[in-house]
Amino acid sequence: MSAQPEVWRVSTVEGVFETDLETLKQWIVEGCVLPTDKVSKGNLSWIEAARVPKLKSAFDPGAAPAPQQTAPSFEEFVEATTPAPRVEPVRAQTPPPTTACHNHPEANPEYVCRMCGEVFCKECPKFVSAKVPVCPLCGDLCRPYREVTERVARAEFQSSGFGIEDFLRAIRYPLQHKSALFGGALLYAFLMLAGFRGSVVGWVILFGCISHVISQVAWGRLNRSFMPDFSAFSFWDDLVVPIALGIGIMVVTFGPLIVLVFALIYSAVSGGHVSPLQAANQPAESGAPDIRVLMDPNADPAKLEAENKKLNGLRPGSQIAREAEHSKDEANDPAGALRYLLPYLGGGIGLALLLLVLIGWGIFYYPMALTVAGYTQSLGSVLNPLVGLDTIRRMGVTYFKGFGMVILVQLAALIVGVIVAVVTSPFTLPFMGNLVANFINATFTFYFNLVIACVLGLSLFKSADRLGIAVD
Hints:
4-stranded antiparallel β-sheet, 3-stranded antiparallel β-sheet, 58% helix, 4 domains, alpha+beta
């Protein structure tokens, strides 16, 4: 007996289909199956298609030879089940011309033919395998009427520009899934109070949610929950990768600033030299007096007077008097102290400007680094600032709008944190701090980060045509 081919199930926006592995790969190449669509081999658990090892070559054609054309395409799968001829598409992504069924005007619309654009009720289409609706007029695949209208509305929303309405939509986004928001915020807050290991796990969960939101919203999936699917937990994908991406974000944004600060601290601690101000105020040494001149009774009076001045200059009282006179001169002549600082002032200004530039870079590039990490899940892309800068260039003003929204959210988080700390200050405990304030702030941190992720995802969604993102 010949071996039975593997049966794969795939869940797409068209529905749930059963096919073999080669056909599934062909559908991936054609773009009918997205990386986030769920697939299942036989009766195994559902998993995202991009995480299946056998399908990675189909998502990345450069990694392996392209699949042979022996497998039927998604359209051929439907076409092979009906003798009706194929016709050329006459409609783009436009609303159906009518909301009434072609054969039964009084019935509610359920399906729309993707080729001829006619609308049908649930009784009119032919069904292949009892699940796939086929147009009775042209024989092509029918799509659910609700899905078509939602896609049209999504396309209009995508072309509407990026502005304040998107900011308000991002604020409301976490509230659409109240149970997930409440459970995730509480879990994150408890983990942040559970020591270093707990904080690491909490941070991984938060970053997983941020990445999930950015990728889903960037593809136009605004109604899906922000909680990742932990049913198929992977130690590498769900733990190692988020930690590596988080470290990469820190390196590419604030890494240069951290290196410069540590270098300054190290030089200040290990230098062991006198500070410039102390060196400027330090009087020049006059040299030791010549004892032979002082002891010679026949010495030249001029030399004797000079050596006596040197001797008097070494007395503590003379040094104190000289320092007091020097301070008085500086007070009467401010420019005098400035003369001592001029050799060092230029370097200090340059260092201050460098610090400001590095701080500005970290603040400006952080949202893009987070966007690149959430969307690509690639450490190499995160560490390469050229990827983010090219994305900023193609997004144009959309990124700067999103950046402003992110700053507003972070300021709101700071204000909320201060208010919570003031209100809960009576609960501060010795050696433990304000646990109540830390717990409440952690829950708000979870919410505000979801808002930031939604803002970044929406900015990508509104720039999908310029970035080449295939939205639903």
